[in-house]
Write a structure and sequence with these properties.
22 strands, single chain, mainly beta, 1% helix, Beta-galactosidase, Chain A, domain 5, 2 domains, globular, binds 2-acetamido-2-deoxy-beta-D-glucopyranose, 1 helix
């Protein structure tokens, strides 16, 4: 079982919970809520569509990306895996192959030289079943047939339960493969902007702070975002350092040489799309803190996963619309480097390392 919880707090805390009944509303979303937090979901991809928390003025802020029209999640040609559960093996499988018990299996090359999110029929493109719901929690289930993604063999049964409690959002994922050994690795792939794109001075994510106290090391990656096998230590103040002090902004190194190509693609990917192992963290420690001084919202992540992918949204180009809960009168789209995905997961390409 893998478990993550993100606790949100603002400078001013208030208790103002509404007891919504968790059934799909007219807009097709399931709503769960507790004091200071309200989350909405759809079965497509087991996706979080909206996450409202309180800002420093006690106003509700929708801190995650998404669409207003639920049908659009399945139609969006860009499909950024918005706030969903990719699977059965997230992130990259290097060179589209893995071995189990001395047999090598070839998977679909759908991301350059590699397999991304298992290839075709990955779980973020599937409509999951709702198998339990209360006013504070909802469970989605998926039964994934053998070989539904090329050479991902053996049926897998998986569930995710999302729940909210007093300003925190909890994610429990489990998956079993009753028939045979198969690659399994899950994450929850949510994109954040803690200002809901309402900071008039900037829509970039660079002014959010990020602290990864147990992640001095990170995985070196090649141009295709595949780990090379080298685990590097970030020198204090260097581009990939978020451990040496608690107040680094995500853009702390944006003027350093190398930042504009730090996430590969032959120098075209600015910022972050890498993996930081979480090392020597006490049980239940806060392993990541994302905060914005503009909204006063702070998100603290606790997880039993082995590390964290940080992706600073380089590949957004202003064509995706913001929700009506976000943006300004002159800001309606998701610009480059304007959000951050924090994905607690096991080591990228761990099946081959
Ligand atoms: C895999 O191959 C190695 C070396 O040939 C052998 O020692 C081992 O028993 C094999 N494992 C399995 C599960 O077949
Ligand atoms: C995931 O599955 C869908 C539907 O089969 C496919 O169109 C897509 O290319 C797959 N891969 C990724 C990385 O999304
Ligand atoms: C949902 O449940 C039905 C009935 O048990 C099953 O046929 C279907 O495959 C399930 N869908 C998923 C995505 O697992
Ligand atoms: C998996 O599906 C592919 C076609 O997508 C097929 O060629 C292959 O034989 C299948 N493998 C198994 C073990 O069924
Ligand atoms: C709710 O969370 C706040 C902020 O973390 C904390 O101060 C308060 O004690 C919590 N209330 C309950 C009932 O747990
Ligand atoms: C960024 O945050 C700092 C404080 O952390 C603040 O002084 C500055 O005005 C902010 N800049 C923008 C563009 O919001
Ligand atoms: C893909 O592999 C080829 C051959 O090994 C290599 O030349 C190319 O640079 C790789 N592409 C990426 C994006 O890593």
């Amino acid at each position: 079982m893998r478990h993550s919880a993100i606790l949100f707090s603002a400078v001013a805390i208030s208790i103002a919970g509404s007891q919504a009944v968790p059934k799909p509303g007219a807009d097709g979303k399931y709503t769960i809520s507790s004091s200071g937090i309200k989350a909405q979901f759809i079965p497509y991809g087991a996706t979080l569509t909206n996450l409202f928390v309180k800002d420093k003025a006690d106003k509700d802020v929708d801190v995650v990306l998404g669409y207003d029209v639920v049908d659009y999640y399945a139609k969006d040609p860009g499909h950024p895996v918005y706030n969903s559960i990719p699977g059965r093996y997230v992130n990259r499988i290097g060179h589209g192959k893995y071995s189990i018990d001395n047999v090598t299996y070839h998977t679909e090359l759908n991301d350059g030289n590699n397999t991304l999110h298992s290839g075709t029929n990955n779980w973020s493109y599937r409509t999951w079943n709702v198998t339990a719901a209360t006013d504070t929690s909802i469970t989605f289930s998926i039964s994934d047939a053998s070989n539904s993604s090329l050479n991902m063999l053996g049926r897998v049964e998986a569930r995710v339960t999302y729940s909210v409690d007093n300003g925190s959002w909890s994610i429990k994922m489990d998956a079993t493969s009753p028939e045979r050994k198969t690659p399994l690795m899950l994450t929850q792939h949510t994109y954040f902007n803690l200002d809901a794109y309402r900071n008039p001075d900037t829509d970039k994510i660079w002014n959010h702070s990020l602290y990864l106290p147990y992640s001095k090391r990170y995985l070196e990656a090649d141009d295709g975002a595949l780990p090379t096998g080298n685990v590097l230590t970030a020198a204090p103040g260097s581009i990939n350092d978020f451990a040496s002090q608690p107040n680094f902004l995500l853009g702390h190194a944006k003027d350093q040489p190398g930042f504009s190509g730090n996430c590969g693609a032959g120098g075209a990917c600015e910022g972050y799309n890498g993996y930081w192992p979480i090392e020597n963290a006490p049980t239940d420690a806060v392993v990541a803190t994302l905060a914005s001084s503009f909204s006063g919202i702070k998100a603290e992540l606790r997880t039993d996963q082995a590390g964290l992918v940080v992706y600073s949204c380089n590949w957004f180009d202003g064509t995706s619309a913001l929700k009506k809960t976000q943006g300004l009168s002159d800001r309606h789209t998701v610009g480059r480097s304007s959000c951050v995905a924090l994905e607690a997961q096991d080591w990228v390409d761990g099946i081959n390392q």
